[in-house]
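Hey team,

Filing this mostly as a record. A colleague (T.K.) asked me to run one chain through the structure pipeline before their review meeting, and I want the input and output archived in the tracker in case anyone asks later how it was produced. No errors, nothing strange. Just documentation.

Input sequence:
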Amino acid sequence: MARYFLEVKYDGTAFHGSQLQGDLPTVQLAINKSLSTLLRKEVISFGASRTDEGVHALCNYYHFDFEAPLHPAFLYKLNAILPPTLSVSRMFQTHDPEFNARFAAISRRYRYRIYSKKDPFLVNRALYFPYTINVAALQETAAIIKEYTDFETFSKRNTQTRTFKCTILQSYWEQHETELHYIVEANRFLRGMVRGLVGTQLQVARGRCDTAAFRQIIEGRDCTKADFSVAGHGLYLEDITYPKGQLTEVKDAK
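Output structure:
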């Protein structure tokens, strides 16, 4: 039995999140149906990172197992079956048949995009936020985030996680022409965590609270103190990294 990884990207506004939810259109359901159609037997995929409704992905991974050789034009055929809002960029075979897309990941990186001037071409692609923002305050809060490891404040309720510990590898804001982006990378993320981090930082940037209060919010471990209200469509799962040497790319025959 061989295990394959699919690197996928998708428009999150077309799905009710990434994880299976019965018959609702989700990324995982679309992948399962397309794989099962192409391979002519039921195939179940398993995702690396769960994304909420509206959240986009430039890079997410799903693994699946299959015992027979794949068609030499497998990627082409799979992309032809998948909906237009979801595509497979690359495919890999694992060296270890137990290598897991979710649990083997070393880090995940997200990007949140904000714009302040009305732009019809950014609708559902970034958050329209037409308010005065103190960018220096954002840089300060982003740096503060790296000092902490317990992020219970930024985890939505009804989560099944056993720990709220996360190691933040990167946390910063940067200007991209007319947009402001927040980039955060960690070994793991909690449910709703990035949107909570963004929304709460924006409260500081608008003068609703100061950096001392921001620290108190983190240390309070109370999710009712965080702001999760920013829209999902401004958020992108941008990259996932795995240990080197564990995946070998599989390409279509020319």
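Quick notes for T.K.: The chain is about 20% helix and 25% strand. Residues 107-238 form a domain with the Alpha-Beta Plaits fold (CATH 3.30.70.660).
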